C-alpha cells in the first residue's frame, strides 16, 4: 500500500511535469498539425510510463525498468534546465509579443499634383481620352487632380503590423528545446556510467574522545543503500563484497536499504554477503526499503548469511585491549510496521557504561537528533545517496541534517556514506557510489 500511495503521488506530479514539457517541447516548437498531435501522444505515453514503471517493477515486470527509469532521469533534467531557461527567455518572449501587437505605420499621404498651364479648364471632346498626368495612375486621383471639387480617396486606416514574430518565437522555442534535450541526455548518459561503475572508496578518520589509545585505528567498513533490485543484481553484491574484504576491517556495518524486493525475488542476489570478512563480524540495521520488501523475512535471511541484525540493541566489541559499544536502531519507517518495529533508543543505548565510546548504526541521518540525547559519540548512516542526482541534493538538505560525509548534529558526529547502489534511475551525478572505511582515532 505504501508503494501504491507513492506511485499515485508520483503519477500526479509527473503528469503536471509532462504537461509543462509538452508545452515547451511540443506545442511551442511545432505548428498545428500532424507533427504536434504525434508529439502529444508520445508525451502522454511517457507520462504513463513513469508510474507504470514504479508499480510494474515491484510486480515483477522488470522489462519496464530500463526505459522507465532512464526516462525518469531525462525528465528530471529537462524540467530543471527548461525551468532555469525561463528567466532569461522571459524578456525575449515579452518583446516578441509586443512587436507582434504593434500597429503598422500609416502610409505617407501623396502630395496633390499641381495644375500647370491655363487658369481656366479647357474643355475636351468626350471622344478624346483624358490626358494622363505625370505620377497619377489611379482614376480617382486623376479626377481629383483635374477637378478640385472631387475629394481625394480616403487613406485606409492603419491595421496591425504583419506578424513576422511567430517565426522568431518558433526558432527561439526550438533552440531552447534542443539545448535542453542535448544537455539532459548528456547528463543522464554521464550519470548512468557513474552509477554502474565500481563504488569509490572513501577513507575518513574520526576522532572519538573516549576511544582507548589501544584501539586507535579501529576500522569500520561502512556500506549502505545497495538497493538490490531489477537493475542491481548478484554481480553488484559480489563486487561490493570483494571490495570490502580488501579493507581488512575490524567490523563491517551495513546501514540499511539493502533490497528492493522480497527474499524470493532477491535472495540469490544477496547470497554473496555470506562471504564478508572482518575481525569482529558484519552487522546490519534496517532501512526504510526493508519495510517495503518484507523486513522480517530479510532479517531471518541475513542472519542465515552470517550478518547480525541489530534491532534496537547494543553489543560490546572488545579489541586491542579496549572496549567499544556498537549499537543499532531500526529505521523510523519501522514504526508503521507494527508495535516494537520502530527505533527504540532507550533500549539500544540505556544502561551502558558512559565512559565507553558508542558507535550507533542508524539508517537515516535525521535519527542523530535522538541519538545525541543518549550521548552517542558517532552515528553511521546512509539513506541520502549523497543526493544521487544534482541538484536533487539541495532538496535532501531540507529533510536530513547531513547529506554526505562527516557532520555534527547536536554535538554528535554523523558520518553519511553515499551508498553503493542507486534507487530508481541508474544515474548518479555529483554523488558517485561509495564504500567507506571509517577509521576511529583516539583524541
What's the SSE blueprint?
Layout: H1 2-27, H2 34-58, H3 65-101, H4 139-146, H5 165-196, E1 200-208, E2 218-223, H6 234-245, E3 251-254, H7 263-270, E4 282-284, H8 295-304, E5 308-309, E6 313-319, E7 322-328, H9 345-349, E8 358-361, H10 368-373, E9 378-381, H11 392-396, E10 405-409, E11 412-416, E12 434-442
Parallel strand pairs: 1-12, 2-3, 3-4, 4-5, 7-8, 8-9, 9-11
Antiparallel strand pairs: 2-12, 6-7, 10-11
Helix pairs in contact: 1-2, 1-3, 2-3, 3-5
Task: Please describe what this structure looks like.
- Keywords: Hydrolase, Membrane, Metal-binding, Transmembrane, Transmembrane helix.
- Residues 100-166 are annotated as: Disordered.
- GO terms for molecular function: metal ion binding; UDP-2,3-diacylglucosamine hydrolase activity.
- It is a single chain.
- With 443 residues, the protein is of the alpha/beta class.
- The protein has 2 domains: 2-102 and 163-192, no CATH class; 200-442, 4-Layer Sandwich (Purple Acid Phosphatase, chain A, domain 2).
- It has 11 helices and 12 strands.
- The chain has a 6-stranded mixed β-sheet with strand order 1-12-2-3-4-5. Strands 6-7-8-9-11-10 form a 6-stranded mixed β-sheet.
- Helix 9 (345-349) links the parallel strand 7 and strand 8 (358-361).
- Helix 1 (2-27) crosses helix 3 (65-101) and helix 2 (34-58) runs antiparallel to helix 3.
- The longest helix is centred in the first third of the chain and has 37 residues, at 65-101.
- The protein is elongated and about 110 Å long.
- It starts with a helix and ends with a strand.
- Mean pLDDT is 88; it is low at 118-129.
Amino acid at each position: 500500500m505504501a508503494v501504491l500511495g507513492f506511485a499515485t503521488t508520483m503519477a500526479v506530479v509527473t503528469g503536471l511535469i509532462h504537461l509543462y514539457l509538452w508545452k515547451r517541447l511540443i506545442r511551442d516548437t511545432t505548428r498545428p498539425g500532424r507533427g504536434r498531435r504525434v508529439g502529444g501522444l508520445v508525451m502522454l505515453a511517457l507520462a504513463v510510463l513513469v508510474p507504470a514503471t514504479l508499480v510494474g517493477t515491484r510486480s515483477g515486470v522488470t522489462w519496464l525498468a530500463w526505459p522507465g527509469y532512464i526516462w525518469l532521469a531525462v525528465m528530471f533534467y529537462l524540467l530543471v534546465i527548461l525551468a532555469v531557461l525561463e528567466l532569461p527567455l522571459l524578456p525575449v518572449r515579452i518583446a516578441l509579443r509586443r512587436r507582434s501587437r504593434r500597429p503598422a505605420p500609416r502610409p505617407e499621404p501623396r502630395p496633390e499634383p499641381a495644375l500647370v498651364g491655363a487658369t481656366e479648364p479647357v474643355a475636351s471632346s468626350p471622344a478624346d481620352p483624358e490626358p494622363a498626368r505625370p505620377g497619377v495612375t489611379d482614376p480617382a486621383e486623376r479626377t481629383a487632380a483635374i477637378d478640385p471639387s472631387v475629394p481625394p480617396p480616403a487613406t485606409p486606416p492603419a491595421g496591425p503590423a504583419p506578424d513576422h514574430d511567430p517565426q522568431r518565437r518558433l526558432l527561439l522555442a526550438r533552440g531552447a528545446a534542443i539545448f535542453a534535450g542535448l544537455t539532459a541526455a548528456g547528463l543522464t548518459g554521464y550519470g548512468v556510467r557513474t552509477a554502474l561503475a565500481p563504488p569509490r572508496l572513501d577513507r575518513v578518520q574520526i576522532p572519538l574522545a573516549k576511544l582507548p589509545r589501544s584501539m586507535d585505528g579501529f576500522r569500520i567498513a561502512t556500506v549502505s543503500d545497495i538497493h538490490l533490485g531489477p537493475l542491481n543484481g548478484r554481480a553488484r553484491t559480489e563486487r561490493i563484497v570483494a571490495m570490502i574484504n580488501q579493507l581488512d576491517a575490524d567490523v563491517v556495518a551495513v546501514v540499511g536499504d539493502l533490497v528492493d524486493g522480497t527474499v524470493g525475488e532477491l535472495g540469490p542476489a544477496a547470497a554473496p554477503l555470506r562471504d564478508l570478512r572482518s575481525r569482529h563480524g558484519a552487522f546490519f540495521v534496517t532501512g526504510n526499503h526493508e519495510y517495503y520488501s518484507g523486513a522480517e523475512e530479510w532479517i531471518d535471511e541475513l542472519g542465515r548469511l552470517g550478518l547480525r541484525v541489530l534491532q534496537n540493541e547494543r553489543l560490546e566489541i572488545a579489541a586491542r585491549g579496549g572496549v567499544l559499544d556498537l549499537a543499532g536502531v531500526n529505521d523510523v519507517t519501522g514504526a508503521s510496521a507494527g508495535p516494537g518495529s520502530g527505533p527504540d533508543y532507550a533500549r539500544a543505548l540505556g544502561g551502558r557504561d558512559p565512559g565507553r565510546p558508542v558507535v550507533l548504526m542508524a539508517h537515516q541521518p535525521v535519527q542523530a537528533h535522538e541519538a545525541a540525547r543518549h550521548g552517542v559519540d558517532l552515528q553511521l548512516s546512509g539513506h541520502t545517496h549523497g543526493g544521487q542526482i544534482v541538484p536533487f541534493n539541495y532538496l535532501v538538505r531540507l529533510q536530513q541534517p547531513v547529506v554526505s560525509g562527516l557532520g555534527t548534529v547536536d554535538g554528535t558526529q554523523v558520518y553519511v556514506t553515499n551508498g553503493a547502489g542507486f534507487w530508481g534511475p541508474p544515474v548518479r551525478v555529483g554523488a558517485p557510489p561509495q564504500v567507506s572505511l571509517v577509521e576511529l582515532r583516539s583524541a
